[in-house]
Amino acid sequence: MTQSEFRYAHHPEDVKKYSTEDLRREFLIDDLFNEDKIKLVYSMYDRLIVGGVMPVSTALKLEPTDDLKAGHFLDRRELGIINVGGSGKVTVDGEVYELGNKEALYIGKGTKEVVFEKEGAEQPYFYINSAPAHHTYPTKKITKNEAEIVELGEEKYANKRTINKLIVNSVLETCQLQMGMTELQPGSVWNTMPAHVHARRMEAYFYFDLEEGQTINHLMGQPHETRHVFMKNHEAVLSPEWSIHSGVGTSNYTFIWGMAGENMDYGDMDGIKTNELK
């Protein structure tokens, strides 16, 4: 079964007037994983689709939603998958890919059938991002050993972290989708600080590995007009092109960043000095 939602884009002047309830309704994506269901959110920000797939007792096939007006989900799209749970498998046009915890799979445009299944005793949680595609690139599995890894941050600033670039153009070819995973070390709680924006692409953050009972304060908005959204484990948030995307947790955690837009250069960002945020 597939559940789908549609989200419009927003002008930053309008977002300044949003209440807490408004912000959460428009940008927060909660309840991502439901037993034997696929949940998809279609965003008008670069037409990114954010989703969660949780196969428990049955295999789940990725079907096109009404918003796509397509015969197959990937007729005009590419797909990125990162498993944040126990072992599972994804069957792509008959070929089986086993995905362990924190392993990724890229699937190219034109694929006809994608099926998700549980494998083993532990529950897999497949987090997915999809973007429009103009060309077909090969399906490829990416493990953490194959990722481009960057170590950033310092303990004294509570932001010591490991960035795993999984589905990025330095690892494999894609049309526009870029995905990676940032793991914060124990004692570190700040991500993506100093903050930045990049008007040439939007972003979505998905938070996981957060200790039960803890929370993350996700920061968004224009650098001079910031807002915040408190989030729990296994929740995602949309970040417009004009918005910062940073956060701080009450314990360490891991998050997945996914991007779509016209520039795939990871370093394409306009930085904001920390003491200039408002």
Automatic annotation (TrEMBL):
<dbReference type="InterPro" id="IPR021120">
    <property type="entry name" value="KduI/IolB_isomerase"/>
</dbReference>
<feature type="binding site">
    <location>
        <position position="196"/>
    </location>
    <ligand>
        <name>Zn(2+)</name>
    </ligand>
</feature>
<comment type="function">
    <text>Catalyzes the isomerization of 5-dehydro-4-deoxy-D-glucuronate to 3-deoxy-D-glycero-2,5-hexodiulosonate.</text>
</comment>
<dbReference type="InterPro" id="IPR011051">
    <property type="entry name" value="RmlC_Cupin_sf"/>
</dbReference>
<dbReference type="GO" id="GO:0008270">
    <property type="term" value="F:zinc ion binding"/>
</dbReference>
<dbReference type="InterPro" id="IPR027449">
    <property type="entry name" value="KduI_N"/>
</dbReference>
<keyword id="KW-0862">Zinc</keyword>
<keyword id="KW-0479">Metal-binding</keyword>
<keyword id="KW-0413">Isomerase</keyword>
<feature type="binding site">
    <location>
        <position position="203"/>
    </location>
    <ligand>
        <name>Zn(2+)</name>
    </ligand>
</feature>
<feature type="binding site">
    <location>
        <position position="245"/>
    </location>
    <ligand>
        <name>Zn(2+)</name>
    </ligand>
</feature>
<dbReference type="GO" id="GO:0019698">
    <property type="term" value="P:D-galacturonate catabolic process"/>
</dbReference>
<comment type="pathway">
    <text>Glycan metabolism; pectin degradation; 2-dehydro-3-deoxy-D-gluconate from pectin: step 4/5.</text>
</comment>
<feature type="binding site">
    <location>
        <position position="198"/>
    </location>
    <ligand>
        <name>Zn(2+)</name>
    </ligand>
</feature>
<dbReference type="InterPro" id="IPR007045">
    <property type="entry name" value="KduI"/>
</dbReference>
<dbReference type="InterPro" id="IPR014710">
    <property type="entry name" value="RmlC-like_jellyroll"/>
</dbReference>
<protein>
    <recommendedName>
        <fullName>4-deoxy-L-threo-5-hexosulose-uronate ketol-isomerase</fullName>
        <ecNumber>5.3.1.17</ecNumber>
    </recommendedName>
</protein>
<dbReference type="GO" id="GO:0042840">
    <property type="term" value="P:D-glucuronate catabolic process"/>
</dbReference>
<comment type="similarity">
    <text>Belongs to the KduI family.</text>
</comment>
<dbReference type="Pfam" id="PF04962">
    <property type="entry name" value="KduI"/>
</dbReference>
<dbReference type="GO" id="GO:0008697">
    <property type="term" value="F:4-deoxy-L-threo-5-hexosulose-uronate ketol-isomerase activity"/>
</dbReference>
<dbReference type="GO" id="GO:0045490">
    <property type="term" value="P:pectin catabolic process"/>
</dbReference>
